Sequence to fold (398 residues):
Amino acid sequence: MRRLISLCLLGVSAMPLTAQRRGAVEEPGQFKVIQVREPDGQILTYSDLSKPTEVSLGGTSLAREAHIKLRIQSASGSSSLFFIRKRRPGFLEIDINRGNIAGLKPAQQFGKDFLTYVLWAVSGDGKASNLGEISAAGQKPININARTPYQAFWLMVTAEPDFAVVDPSPEVVLYSIDEEARKEETEKKVPHKKANLSFSTHYSDYDSAPIAVEAAPSELLQARKAVELASRSGILGLERSSGAPEVEEEKHTRETLTRAKGFLVQAESAYKKHPKNNNVVQPARTAAQIAENARALALGVVGGNLIRQLEDELARVRAELEETRTELSKANAKPSGDANTDPNTSSTQAPGPQAEKGSFAQLSPAARLARIVSRPSVWFGLIGWGLAVLLLLRRQST
Fold:
């Protein structure tokens, strides 16, 4: 922790040297808690799994007409639409064999970064788990098998760039609803408690600009988008400094993205040869999965990478300051004043503002930096900035 504080407070003076280089890079997304502000949200709990139970997902303000109705029962039934089986203590296995989907329009309506929908199970503390993709094309039935350790959770559907995302976007279109409360029924089929639904995510910075839908398989479009997002995330969007050692975690992250790009090339080639063939599906989905892994790695290890960058920049600044001290020492050693000037008539009056401004302009860049760094106001500002960075990193680490 002391090392981190020192780097934040001392290394910030080097930030102007790297700000331009990192400007277009997606840094670790700020940890956000998203509130689903709907009056009838429902957290599901299961004390008696032998009884059939209906679960309804209703549309948010983004998709009021969307609706999914699922049926839950124990593993003994074979005709269930949605059932949960207890496999081992603390775990529930969720099998969705079929579901009725209504009013769910293509995800592209939310912007250029959105191509599909994903179903999530969200724990009581807001941790979301990706259960699988829900396609709106032709209102096809759901076919998902997933496992979650949550004993109390709620369900939601979000618009996403691809099926393999590890954190949800803020674009929630469906959520668990208390349909009985809506109908003012007194009988409760699901033991539950009402709650304000919320979830946490690091992935909230998406482009909502409209875009024309491209005539290509959804799997290929998702693979392209996943590789695009990963390529500009964290360390993957940074150019490596020449001669800088590459640590193992950074090397692994870059190799992961390279593998994703390789599968994307295979998918593009398969689509180009046979546009109507399904051979594009497998390499495209593999590319999306690996690219999302690379994206998560990049945004997860970027904090350590930034610390190493600060160390490098700090070393460079120290070298520049040392060079500045040397130049100033040489300048002070030179004889000052005009040889023809009478020392008895020389003025000892302090230079005015114009003279000081002119002398500053005549200094070398290194000398200017030394003068700026020596001002107390600059250090107060840097200390405040460093503390802000420290608080942000501590918040992300939790």
